[in-house]
Amino acid sequence: MPELLGWILGGCLLISTLCGLGVLIKRIVKQELRSFSNPDDYISNGLTTIFQAITALFIAFPHLPAIEIVYFIISVLFLVWFPLGKTRHILYFFFARLHLGYFYGRRGTWPEH
């Protein structure tokens, strides 16, 4: 991978990591979010955020063996948790949007522009 592309992807992943961290902090601090949050919310958010952060580091510094080991361990944890937790909605989201677009769009129920 070209070095410039690695830095761009790493930067984008760091931005998304900060956003995920912000959501996690918001979920912990705000009482109204805390009241309906369950452990799965925290685990899914935490694993996803850690996965993005370590992927950014792995892309930026691929030659460091310690980052590679941590990257693979976090990847395994994330991929094992993926079908078990709320993280699976990442996959369902695209199929649901596709279905909604074709089903309701064909019936003419969406507003025409």
Write up what this structure looks like.
With 113 residues, this protein is an all-alpha fold. It contains 5 helices and no strands. The chain has helices at 3-29, 31-36, 39-60, 65-81, 89-106. The mean pLDDT is 87.
- The low-confidence parts are none
How far apart the termini lie comes to 41 Å
Order of helices and strands: HHHHH
Strand element count: 0
- On the 0 to 100 scale, the average pLDDT is 87
How many domains? The number is: 1
Oligomeric state of shown chains: single chain
Q: What coarse outline follows from CA principal-axis ratios? A: globular
Please describe the biggest sheet, giving its number of strands, its sense, and whether it closes into a barrel: none
